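Teaching note: in complex prediction, the entire set of molecules is handled at once rather than each chain in isolation. The prompt given to students was simply: 'Predict the structure of this complex.' The entities are:
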Amino acid sequence: MIESYRTAFSRQDADALPVWLAPIRQAGLDRFVTAGFPSSKDEEWRFTPLGALPRTGFAPAQAPAHPIARADLEPHLFGQAGWPALVFVNGRFAPELSQLPPAADGVVTLPLARALVSQPGLVEPHLGRHAGPEATPFTALNAAFIQDGAFIRVPAGAELKDPILLVFVTTAEAAGQVTHPRNLIVVEPGARVSLVESYVGLDQDTASFTNAVTEVVVEKGAWVEHTRIQRESEAAYHIGYTHVHQAAESHYRSFTLAMGGLVSRHNLHTRLNAPETEALLYGLSIAHRDQLVDNHTAIYHDQPNCRSWEVYKAIIDDRSRGVFNGKVFVTPEAQKTDAKQTSRTLLLSEHARVNTKPQLEIFADDVKCTHGATVGYLDPMPQFYFQSRGIPADRAQRLLTYAFAAEVMGEVTGDAVREALDLVVRTRLGISEGA
Amino acid sequence: MLEINNLHAGVEGKDILKGITLTVKPGEVHAIMGPNGSGKSTLAQVLAGHPVYQVTEGTVRYNGADLLDLEPEERAQAGVFLAFQYPVEIPGVTNAYFLRTAYNELRKARGEEEVDPMDFLDIIEAKLKVVQWGPEIMSRAVNHGFSGGEKKRNEILQMAVLEPRLCILDETDSGLDIDALKIVAAGVNALRSPDRAMIVVTHYQRLLEFIVPDVVHVLVDGKIAKSGGKELALELEARGYEWIAGPMEPVGAGS
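The expected output is the structure of the full assembly:
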């Protein structure tokens, strides 16, 4: 089905796109055609069977014939009503659903399709420079179809009060269709911002394909909290790739919640490209039925005196599968690296499975690098404790499952974001009120 | 209230309780003493329905019902409360949420309406005084990072909130310094009432100076070897457990 993408590529209306983008798109297509879809023979995809994805000729998503109303979106929105939001429906910017903040003090919040034309000076130096086509076949495919997504630039020293929401909505009309959201976030020296990137399916049975790429540039001394929420339809395919480029003394903190999709995969790569940088990566996956939820992370310690801290948790129920692969690379220059990685999986059914693999490649000698992985079922003692206080067994299990999740959600620093995240997770786990 | 008759129980083929017979009436406080490994804690946990223990023989009737036939949560809903020797840490769930959930489950079981978080705060305010605590304890995760003394106080707080009819205290004094012991004992004493019975499991006589029992039973090798009044505890303190040697005729306790 590679051919169907090639055909779609040749039929694209690229006239509106800037000339400098053409080689990036062409290189993406060429790389994708050469590489093809990954298979289980590929080490990086060994535990991630893609199911029908490579065999399905997903058509480029069309603008929805029936525009969705804000009320339809309301139950799927995240956080507070007043937060600036860029909303995309089936891959296209939906201005009527979005709330762009007033363009003040050099903050740019635009759909990428517009920014490509109006802000080439800000976009061109970064777009495709960090998540290149060679990263995975899917990043190549995304590059071939760069069209829309979010562009955010936070100028030096700026501190944004509210989080910025990027919402990618897939409607029932997108069944059998593919979108390639492309996001570029540039946070200039000393600036601070909280971003919430979320992927939402409005209909639980829509077999759509989302192939997203996000590049985040965290410049010197900048501070970014990046929350990524994937709750697509449980029939959908979701492939995401996030690359973070960190300059000196920058702080990047991410929380990745993955609970939608039939097959989902997210790669999060961060490059600590200068001394005294810090990356904190937290994740929570929740899978049931026949879902597969895969998180691959890679942390590149290129320079000395950097710190990375990573905790990924997964709750795997029914026949579903979880995958976690965490790579940490420490170059010979990266002395005094402090890296810690933890992966913890809770299995809720004896048919649930997880493949978890830490992968540390350390070439410096004066470093502190640790990793640990645990996989287990709910501990019977806390359950008995709850029951002995009158709480029935099934409710006790749900509460303890929530407690397992809550611990890592507590790492989100923004109160409002954390509370909104908590609500999403509680709803999913069937817990009525705040615990 | 509680009639235990010839109770045998153990883990995976290993007998621990070898024929316990004991009757507890409303308003009574029974102390269960005995050396390590005598089965004191097993008895406490079997009564609460701990899944690791299997009952192989005997009956336990609680207010006329077959206690052993009930799930642990049903026992709690019927008014049985076990204060754990090792209270479990639950990171991720606050004390307030846990207690309110338990409180509301008991109300639901009685056919009463659940209380909302605001009303529950009013209820909890009075109960916190029983263990001399301020409200800040409610926003901490259940027992998580608590000191040994705090964990035991938290058990007594739960007991005060849930207002059980049969309280079973499993080595509530273990690991407590004298100040914590006094607070815990004062909390327990505040909950003594004519319609509430208590079974106090302890290794040492010390706790019984503060929680004065009506009856003392000595458990040896899974059986009640001796029963008597509160002075029996003092005798054990003075002479150790060794003097209760050999098989003794179990005394019909508390009746």
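Point out the following to students. The two ends of chain A are 48 Å apart (CA to CA). The mean pLDDT of chain A is 95.
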